[in-house]
Amino acid sequence: MKNKIDAFLDLVKERNGNEPEFLQAVEEVAETVIPYIVSQKIYSGKNILLRMVEPERVLMFRVPWVDDSGEIVVNRGYRIQMNSAIGPYKGGLRFHPSVNLSILKFLAFEQVFKNALTTLPMGGGKGGSDFDPKGKSDDEIMRFCHAFMAELCRHIGPNTDIPAGDIGVGGREIGFLFGMYKKLRNEFTGVLTGKGMSWGGSLIRPEATGYGTVYFAQSMLETKTDTLNGKTVVVSGSGNVAQYACEKSTQLGAKVVTLSDSSGYIYDEEGIDADKLAFVMDLKNVKRGRINEYVERYPSAKFFSGETPWSVKCDVALPCATQNELNEEQAKTLLSNGCKVISEGANMPSTPEAVHAFQAAKILYAPGKASNAGGVATSGLEMSQNSLRINWTREEVDERLKNIMSDIHDSCIQFGKQDDGYIDYVKGANIAGFVKVADAMLAQGVV
Ligand code: NDP
Ligand code: 2IT
After folding, report:
1. What is the third-level CATH fold of 55-187?
2. Helix or strand or coil: residue 293?
3. Which of 26, 91, 280, 442 sees the fewest Cβ atoms within 10 Å?
């Protein structure tokens, strides 16, 4: 088996040698899916995984725009249209200076499996730019978004490819992107998700990724007849996903003691309650400030510059910032401090060595493609509402989100439960996602 996996990975490395994040994501899938393919006659000899690691289409384009000082700036725009076997391409846009082909291909590849897990008809895609929104004025953000959409608009559409937010892209950016799409294509359609409530958005979409990550942690705890009530939770990040992971954890009776950004983390021993979270939301979403300002407002909390929160003792860890933010050493520290649950809100936040440490310790560990799927699932619900031209209530959307997260958990058990009862959520998520996409690809032939 090892030879088969190695031979496959050698081929992928040969073609994508300078794409470390993409190779990391493919390796994790290959390790769990290839043994399954070999065991199932219908998938053997069809090179399905080889077809899945090759994007259906990669778009790369120039994004020229003018900054506030009159300078012409040139950024690079991307859209990876990875797989459309089960529905139109669907996935977020990331604006961050680190964005490159490797990072977007890893995210698009993960998205294919994640979207399949949601039970909704969505293929996988991802896009973005190396544009850095930090320190930019609202006018600069608008000009950049308009320039980005001026090119992207000819490649997307409500039945072709439906982008949404990710790091650096939230409600403000989706608004500017939507405005330019509507103008250039002269149509008001559900071409983007994460829209504002008065122009086609869905209730609960802003909350969905963070809430879903916590619902998934609850489902995992239920397998041990336990709950989040009374647990101490460590959260990384302080953006969209982290904020709502914090909110839902607190609502379910847990105490969240950390938040972070790329400059460091804050530790609040008393817990980040609803009032303190409202301060963080205003700080990050409106004032666009830094997390260290939390300790100026709440002096009993501490700020640790340049550090990550993984050394803080906790029962549950929710990594909600970015890829590879939690390494093997930090995983071992979490384990030795008694952490028993990891539910990933970010995409691929744990390094492969960290994942192996969690699995060797047999704790409850969920990979992002399962536990953070609530965001894209609710985007799928936004698309349904747009097509039907109706709006569901908050309770209705939340109920559907809960059911989807519970279904994803069931799929992980179906394909990931080991003989000794341990649930390998990585294996479960990868195989369940693979089966849905592979069956559609087989039915559609070699295209
Ligand atoms: P935001 O831009 O709202 O927030 C990102 C947060 O992560 C910020 O606190 C940011 O800090 C921090 N961060 C980003 N890059 C780094 C880095 N290199 N090192 C340390 N901290 C970093 O993004 P989201 O909350 O939307 O996304 C967070 C994660 O969740 C990403 O992995 C994303 O792919 C994933 N995700 C998002 C979904 C969504 O619906 N938005 C859905 C599913 C997954 P700083 O401000 O200092 O950069
Ligand atoms: O990683 C993700 O799932 C997202 N950024 C959300 C994608 C979406 O289309 O809602």
Report:
1. Rossmann fold (3.40.50)
2. helix
3. 442
126 is catalytic: yes
Q: Which of 118, 240, 330 is the pocket-test mutation for ligand 1 (most atoms within 8 Å of CB)?
A: 240
Same-fold call for 55-187 versus 208-366: yes
DSSP 377: H
Separation in Å, CA 207 to CA 2, 114, 194, 202, 304: 41, 18, 10, 10, 27
Q: How many residues does the chain have?
A: 447
Protein residue whose Cα sits closest to atom 10 of ligand 2: 376
- Burial class of 68 by CB neighbour count within 10 A (0 to 12, 13 to 18, 19+): exposed
Task: Tell me the domain boundaries of the chain.
Answer: 55-187, 208-366
Task: Tell me the pLDDT of the chain (447 aa) as tens digits.
Answer: 889 999 999 999 999 999 999 999 999 999 999 999 999 999 989 999 999 999 999 999 999 999 999 999 999 999 999 999 999 999 999 999 999 999 999 999 999 999 999 999 999 999 999 999 999 999 999 999 999 999 999 999 999 999 999 999 999 999 999 999 999 999 999 999 999 999 999 999 999 999 999 999 999 999 999 999 999 999 999 999 999 999 999 999 999 999 999 999 999 999 999 999 999 999 999 999 999 999 999 999 999 999 999 999 999 999 999 999 999 999 999 999 999 999 999 999 999 999 999 999 999 999 999 999 999 999 999 999 999 999 999 999 999 999 999 999 999 999 999 999 999 999 999 999 999 999 999 999 999
375 close to ligand 2 (CB < 6 Angstrom): yes
- Atom 42 of ligand 1, nearest CA residue: 375
The three-state secondary structure class of 223 is: coil
Atom of ligand 2 minimally distant from the CA of 115? 3
The fold adopted by the segment(s) 208-366 is Rossmann fold (3.40.50)
Q: Is the pTM of this model over 0.70?
A: yes
AA identity, residue 232:
T
- Is residue 168 lining ligand 2, measured as CB closer than 6 Å? no
Structure tokens that stand for 338 in this block = 């008694």
Contact 149, 181 (CB under 8 A): yes
Ligand 1 and 165: CB distance under 6 A: yes
